[in-house]
Amino acid sequence: MSQSKKNTKQKIFDAAIKTFAEKGFWKTKVSDIVAEAGVAQGTFYLYFNSKDDCLYELLEYLHKGTLHQINQLIENKQSTIFDICASFIKRIYQYKMLSKVFLFEALSSGEKFKNLYFRFKKNIRDMLSKVLSEETNNYNETTVSIISGFLKELIEYYILFLNEDLDTILKHLYEGLEKIEGARYEKI
Amino acid sequence: MSQSKKNTKQKIFDAAIKTFAEKGFWKTKVSDIVAEAGVAQGTFYLYFNSKDDCLYELLEYLHKGTLHQINQLIENKQSTIFDICASFIKRIYQYKMLSKVFLFEALSSGEKFKNLYFRFKKNIRDMLSKVLSEETNNYNETTVSIISGFLKELIEYYILFLNEDLDTILKHLYEGLEKIEGARYEKI
Amino acid sequence: MSQSKKNTKQKIFDAAIKTFAEKGFWKTKVSDIVAEAGVAQGTFYLYFNSKDDCLYELLEYLHKGTLHQINQLIENKQSTIFDICASFIKRIYQYKMLSKVFLFEALSSGEKFKNLYFRFKKNIRDMLSKVLSEETNNYNETTVSIISGFLKELIEYYILFLNEDLDTILKHLYEGLEKIEGARYEKI
Amino acid sequence: MSQSKKNTKQKIFDAAIKTFAEKGFWKTKVSDIVAEAGVAQGTFYLYFNSKDDCLYELLEYLHKGTLHQINQLIENKQSTIFDICASFIKRIYQYKMLSKVFLFEALSSGEKFKNLYFRFKKNIRDMLSKVLSEETNNYNETTVSIISGFLKELIEYYILFLNEDLDTILKHLYEGLEKIEGARYEKI
DNA sequence: TATGAATGAGGCTTCATTCAT
DNA sequence: GATGAATGAAGCCTCATTCAT
Gene3D superfamilies of this UniProt entry (chains A, B, C, D) (predicted)? Predict the structure, then answer.
């Protein structure tokens, strides 16, 4: 892939993220994306087969990257559940707009996206399970649900609704996990 | 409102809930709703100004009813946090399809719906706060976030994804609150 | 089907025939047809799934009607090959524009239409065969090819290109068949 | 024209013939042609002004070549009508794909092409007239129509539809002319 | 009140053509 | 000459909404 081709695709990608996040998948027109990207309507179709396709590629990118990042932490045996969650929250915060699309658009954007969303949720829960079972001796599924739900609440309420900064959110996370797990963590 | 008018509107209401839940707001056509309801296309517009309007009315109905139900429990000073949560879960379970639309479509269906959704979330959190502060002496916002997130996880994962029955879900709820609060509740 | 519905479909049908005949299938836009018919763009899609569909329905109509008409003549045992051909030519002349579409657009409008065209051609040849074998004792396939080709030449050259009137064309037909068959026919 | 330029143009020419014949003029995209030719999209426009232009050049080439070939036969006073027709059929068979485009696409590809087609048809008929009037003493226009139609039927039905081989088709031709003319020809 | 045919603005996508390299 | 990414006009089709009956 040539440099210029890569650039054009990236421009469209960035514009799509921004537009999907602002207007939502269904209200976003391809013409909005290309206007934001500064390319012609037809150019969009050189890189994506459809609007659907574009969203799917974006979500897969976030999905894979996030899981990969967490997996690497897990392989480092010294990572605590706090490290994992903080890493997750940081990534979501970094990709705020794209995450918004993933977490709050996917369920209503068609079967394909719903499946991707639930695959993601399942993966996150599995990772939490793994770390919890290594870390504590009274692991159970309920704890996974509590933490998984708490993470989503942090994102939904503190990031999206209240729009708080990362440090404040990590503080909430720390306090929450402390309460849930009854343990103290080193902040990272 | 005459009896027959009420019936027609109710037919459309029910059809709309079913269709929105099955196909999502954006993929639902007015023609789908009226086909399901067994009335003519034009009839829809005798009762609703628009497709948006119809969804909004539905969500407000769920919103108000749910808050009202919880409020009544709160006014009965003996209600525990478990009672409140169980009542909430039961109602969501009862209006499974409509709730699905509310909890997972609203954020992506336009500004108006997003506002309604966050108003609802805020109300639920406030009620939890109120009960918690009456019930425990170490109440804090973090606990509200944990419980609020846990409730949504129960709905998202156990009701929508795994499609478990009400009793199983209430069991999860009980175990979760026990873990969060470190207390035992009377099951209702 | 209500009267008004029938009328609208007929209006579109007529407009489609005219437009297809004038501009050809590929150059005809749905917007041309509806403009000619005096209805809205969307109305077209109440009656046809697509432009393809519309053409197909038109051609089938001509196809079936023409075959039916000839079949009835054949069942009357006294019909000569001249009667059959004259009846065919008259029908083509009557549906001049639609026939033009069938005979000269179908082969280039996609597989489906090509198949319909060759089915039609085969049917016509079979009918000619049947009548010839009843009428003469030295019937053979070559004669069928000669007559079939002659008929198409009459249409292509005298109707479409020279735009001659029906009587002149029937005169050509009479002379041609006389030459081919070496017999004299009663003009009908 | 340089050698390499000639090669590129020829590659595109050949690809265009193949593609037009397979998919028809309207369904053929310039991108199909260049893919088949193995050149870049822009290269097409170094040799042709437009897709229309390319088809027109192709058809003119077939047109002129065919007429030229027949004219040479006519100048040789000993050529019979069978020689002329056989030569015509052989050429059509040799340029099967291109002929398909000419004979069955031209009428529906726009005014310019329709004119070219009828010019061709007129030329063929004139040549037949000329030979017939030299060969027989009871020449008339009807015979021209019969032979012209028969030739097209041979192409349409036996070449395109039944896909028979050249010898078989020439046999049909021989039998047909024998029947039409009541004479015996030397096969060439 | 109820109907359902008709509307038409608007979105998605295609593809012939251009042009900078 | 050759390339192929970029263009953008144009066309098909959808569907929320209207309105005459």
Answer: Homeodomain-like (1.10.10.60), Tetracycline Repressor, domain 2 (1.10.357.10)
